[in-house]
Amino acid sequence: MNQHYLTALLAILLALSGVPNLSAQQDSSADVLYKQGLSYKNGTDGKNIDFAKAYDYFSQAAQLNYPQGVYSLAYMHFKGLSCQQDYVKAAGLFKQGALAGRDNSMYFLGLIYRNGYGIPANEDSAKYWLQKAADMGYKQAIEELKMQVGENSNVAAKALAAQIQNAALPANAILDHYVRIEHKLPGQSIITGDYNGYLLQYDWSGQNIVDSKSLNLHLADNNGILTGTWTEEGTDSVAVQASLEADSLRFSNTQYRRKDHYSPDTAILYNFNDIVLNLVQKNDSTVNSSDIDHLIPD
């Protein structure tokens, strides 16, 4: 009896003496790591955007089972930011965050189930997690539930891709997933003029076509500088400026707004960050095809 009493008394004295709570201390450290990662991801708090450093900090926070760190690491894998794009790994991490009660992880897990990204599509699981996030007030989940289908259900875009015969693609190319464009240089005299076609948008894995829009690109030679307009769907137009390089046109310092599945009502600001359009001469036609790796929302 005396031994038990002394043990209990010792525990009370230790608690009163200020011995730190290890769990709280761990959470504090994880929160610092997460916030450091966030500042590198977004380029805030005096830091430049550095996805590699952001990924490292998020990984450390996730290793401490910090829910927001787990979510952020999943997000990096979902989009392939400074890591291999991997929907399967992202799904596992989002599920971990969702089970920990994070509304943002619930939302992304719902998207993955709805679109079949990396795992078999499951509408029931998608609605379950999207609804749980919506019930917590997560706006993006509320908006997604209003959509009749997910972004990976664009039948028109898939049909268009199946019909396109693009001279810039290899003869055996499969058009239902992203293919890197060949680089070939035509004569400079045929650069200017009007190019009409389509802008195909892929998901983050480059395996799924999620949207298509008609595109007109008008280019003119303005005292040695290529200027013109980029027009989507005949209405959304932006002035562009480009330089001719060895095998491509390079656009820079251009911003414009466009709508997509996740922002159907309000156009999002996009940056043309060194977009390269590759020009290919075939018979009497010039094909202008692109690898748009850096069309990134602000």
Automatic annotation (TrEMBL):
Transmembrane segments: none annotated. SMART domains: SEL1. Gene3D superfamilies: Tetratricopeptide repeat domain. The keyword RNA-binding does not apply. Keywords: Signal. Residues 1-24 form the signal peptide. Coiled coil: none annotated. InterPro entries: Mitotic_Regulator, Sel1-like, TPR-like_helical_dom_sf. Pfam families: Sel1. PANTHER family: ACTIVATOR OF C KINASE PROTEIN 1-RELATED, CHITIN SYNTHASE REGULATORY FACTOR 2-RELATED. This is Sel1 repeat family protein. The lineage of its organism: Bacteria, Pseudomonadati, Bacteroidota, Flavobacteriia, Flavobacteriales.
